[in-house]
Structure formats: C-alpha cells, structure tokens
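Recall the central idea of this unit: under ordinary conditions, the amino acid sequence of a chain determines the structure it adopts. In this exercise we apply that idea directly, starting from the sequence alone.
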Amino acid sequence: MSAMRHIAVIDIGKTNAKVALVDLTTLSEVALRRMANAPPRQTPYPHHDVEALWTFILDSLASLNHERRIDAISITTHGATGALVNASGELVLPVLDYEFDGPDALAADYDAIRPPFAETGTPRLPLGLNLGAQFFWQRKRFPGEFARAAAMLMYPQYWALRLTGVTANEVTSLGCHTDLWDPWKADFSSLVGRMDWRHLMAPVRPARDRLGPILPALAVRTGLDPQTPVFCGLHDSNASLLPHLLSDAPPFSVVSTGTWVVSMAVGGKQVTLDAARDTLVNVNALGNPVPSARFMGGREFSLLTDDKPQDCSGSDVLAVLGRKILLLPSTQQRSGPFPQQAATWLDADGMNDGQRFAAISFYLALMTATCLDLIGADGPTTVEGPFARNRLFVGMLAAATARSVVASEAATGTSIGAALLASDQAATHGKGERLEPPTNPAWADYVSAWRTAVEAQG
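Accordingly, the structure predicted from this sequence is:
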C-alpha cells in the first residue's frame, strides 16, 4: 500500500465522465481523460450508457498506463444512481437516469411506505432523486426483470464489480438521499425490510477496502499489471470532503461543485434541518452523518451562460454591485433551498454580457451561502471543483458568509479524495488561495439587497 504512487480515479459525473491519474506523492492530478456523459433517452426509459462509459474507462486506463504505470484504481460517481444485477453480474434493467420523471407516477404509493426524514435524513425529492423511489418504480413496472436481480449495487460499486467481479456496497452512496440507509444506526433503513430487499443488498464495505485485483481479461485489454488493486470507492461529494476530514480541524465546511453544488458542514452549529429546502444528512467516508444541502448550481450555470467563455471586467463587477443587478432563485425548480420559486431578474435592463456573468456568479454564491446557513456551517469554507476557479463566486461567497473561503487548486476536487482511499496519509493537497470577505461595503450591501428581494419574492 505504501509503495503506491499513481492512482487512476474513475470519476463518473452527471455531465462528464473522467479518468484522472493522481500522484500520491504530490496529491495532484498529472493526467486526465474526459468525455461527455449524456444519458440516452431510449426505451425502456432514459438510462446511462454504461457500455460507452465502459469503453471510455478501459481506453483511458490503457492510455494513462502507457504514460505512467498505474498502481491502483479508485472509483467515485454521482449519487442517486444504482444498478440491479443478476448472479452473473449483468444488468437486469438499464441504470436509470435520476432526471427521468417516471417514478413520479407512483409517488403516492411510494410516499406511503418510505421512511420519515427523522429516520434517514433523506428529504422527499422529485423524479428519481430518491434511489429507493427508482427501485420501487422498477419493481412495479418491470416485475419479471426485477425478480431476476441478485444484487442492488450503488453506482461506484457497479463499476467496481465490472473491474473485479466482487459485489459490494458502501455507506457514502447508500447515505446519499436514497431512503435506504439509517445514518444514526449505520444500517439499512426500514424501507429495505418493508420491501424485502435486504437479501439483495450486497455486503457493505468501507470505501478504502481493496476489493481485489482487476479481472485477468481487463489486464490484457488495458496493459495494467494483473495484480492492480481496485478500491471500493465512494460518492463524489464525499470524495471531495475526505481530504479535509483527514487533515482539517473542525469547524469547517466543504462545497463540492459540479452539476450539483453540495455543501457539507463538519463541526458546525446545531440546527434543525428543513427537509422542504433540500437539506439532508449525508454519510461521510468514515461512516459519520454530515449535515448537507444542495442545489443544481452547475446545471444552472450551464443554462444561464450556454457554456460559453465569459469576459467580465472590473467595471462590469462594479456596475452589478452598484446597480444591484439581481438574479433571484430558482432557475432549476423542485430542488434546492427555494424549490418553489421561479427565477427572475431585477434591475437588469441594458446589462451587457460581462455584467450578466457577474450577476450569475453572485447568484450562485448567494444560493451556496443560503445552503451553508441552513446546515449550520461555521469556520472556513473550501470550494472544490469548477466554481473554485470563478473568483466572483468565491469573493461573493466570502462576503455572504462573512468567513474566509479557500479556492481549491485541484482541477477535479473529487479525484484527490478518491485517490486517498489507496493511501494511509492524512495530509491533504495544497489548499489553494484563501480569500477573506471583501472590505468594500458594496459587497455586503449587495448580499443584503439579494436577501431582501428573495424574502419579498416569498
């Protein structure tokens, strides 16, 4: 274990899939492969193209190993996703896309049997965002196929199965608003017993367990050493959190950004979580409950900017602050801290593209600050992922929380944490730049104006 240096991290995000090569001696990414990850909308329902992803994974492992010898493989994926496999490890149904609205058709039936928030820390979410609702819908709609299932796997462990032939589950994905896990008892929830699913649940193993070496055929396909170990893996937001759990002193919070912006508080203030505002209890890689909140910030950013490069001058920023150009929530409804409110612009007439970008960045930061308030966050906040490179987002987050914010240096925040599963070291990667709250009162005035407008919006 101590001799391992280069860890290949399979990172399946909702928007992009990546394979990153992490150097454990520097805790930095030294190579990266990426592909778009758009679930095809095909029969029998929108689902993940696991075969295209599998080809991408194997090709990436082969090319990365050609550059530097891969010593181990770790896995991290987005949540709200699971796989039903037969005794041979093959899917009995496609891996459902959690943005599919099919499970909503059985919402009343599912609501009658799902556990309460007090038991699981899981809010009732729309579409397939509660994994239990997905499995419930699949069981009702495809009883024949469902009956052939020998195991229910969380998404990281589905890929671990394909790599090693070993079935397992793990708590960070089980505890990610699935309705399937009781974070306080560290056991399956009452839903699993009520639905007679316990026999389908693969053994729960720690994220850092070495499940086994890669399968012989994969060693031939990729050129990897046949003894290359594969670690159990974990949920992506919890991968971002793990380095800080190993090295930081509470209180602190971590904001993991991607398609979802997930805020997690460690050692914060005692608050009562509001299930109606998309707060929840995640389970970290050490098995402990973590108050969390989220909204679909990465998706909102993509829709609002059309994913085009943005130029924003200092005068644009000052104009937005001075005129109080405000974007109010929510661009993506039915989730986040303001699930029922529809997005609207205030004082936005005549704004140019740079001013629009600044206002969007400020909106995303203020939504994130709201999430942090809802979970009692305290101490410094570290931003992981793409938003860490947006200085306007980071600056406004510091202004809105009145606490320092660290912009992580890692290009892919999840990859470092996932790679650490293969290491005994506790030191995290270089933190990145620490920003203190701006001293210019215009920033605090903007925060106050946004919050007043949101409250008036109702």
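The mean pLDDT is 94.
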